[in-house]
Amino acid sequence: MDSVSPAAISALIRQRRAIFPKMYLPNRPIAEEIIREVLENANWAPTHKLTQPWRFRVLQGSALRRLGEFLANHYKEKNPSDQFSEITYNKLLTNPQRAAAVVVLIMQRDPAESLPEWEEIAAVACAVQNMWLTCTAYGIGAYWSTPSAITTADKWLGLEPGQRCLGLFYMGWYDPIDLPGKRTPIEDKTVWINE
After folding, report:
1. 100 near 28, Cβ under 8 Å?
2. Mean pLDDT throughout 48-60?
3. What is the CA radius of gyration of the chain?
4. Average pLDDT over the chain, rounded to whole?
5. Strand partners of residue 104
6. Edge-to-edge strand list for the sheet holding 101-108
7. Angle (CA) 127 28 146, round 5°
8. Which domains does the chain have, with CATH numbers?
9. In the predicted model, what is the mean pLDDT of residues 67-79?
10. Which residues of 149-161 are buried (b: 16+ CB within 10 A; e: fewer)?
């Protein structure tokens, strides 16, 4: 097995950022082989009892337009006219079409419920981190979005029993920019116990 230096892993982790759809370059597709590698790396996330609860739907082409229409229409239906924002509506409508691909993130509950649901949600989150780091390594922008519409998207997405949508993973090429990290010191979040 090829070894990767701890410094290289640390650098990759620390340069990962949320890159929003407004920053994506238009009309620049991501090769299918790259998307497959992103998903294969997701498949190697930690998973208690090997339930491997992650499931994905990769949306591209006209499916991105349909996603935008679904998100925008859900927003319009759920917000009375005095709370409706044309800016938010248009953002929901157009953001999916700015992406080269959007991966629907789905958690498949273990039918035997052999472990707590939160562990399967955590496993999917680990899979998403693997996806995000792979995108970062390729110079692909990525963003995990959790619009309120996902709570009502089961039928639209064709989810099966026991499945739950945990969000949308936007992917797109972007012009490299230096985005500073925003983290408070780890010392403020750590207690060392030696006895």
Report:
1. yes
2. 97
3. 18
4. 95
5. 57, 168
6. 54-59, 101-108, 163-173, 140-145
7. 40
8. 13-189 (3.40.109.10)
9. 95
10. bbeebeeebebee
Question: Exposed, middle or buried by CB within 10 Å (0-12, 13-18, 19+), for 109?
Answer: middle
User: What's the token pair of residue 79?
Assistant: 């917000």
| Torsion of the alpha carbons at 86, 88, 92 and 94, rounded to the nearest 10 | 60
Residue showing tokens 């750590």: 190
Give the chain's end-to-end CA distance (angstroms, integer): 38
Distance CA 20, CA 143 (A): 6
User: Are 137 and 12 contacting, i.e. CB atoms less than 8 angstroms apart?
Assistant: yes
State both tokens at 36. 């497959």
Q: pTM value? A: 0.95
Of 162, 117, 171, the residue nearest 144 (C-alpha): 171
d(CA 10, CA 190): 19
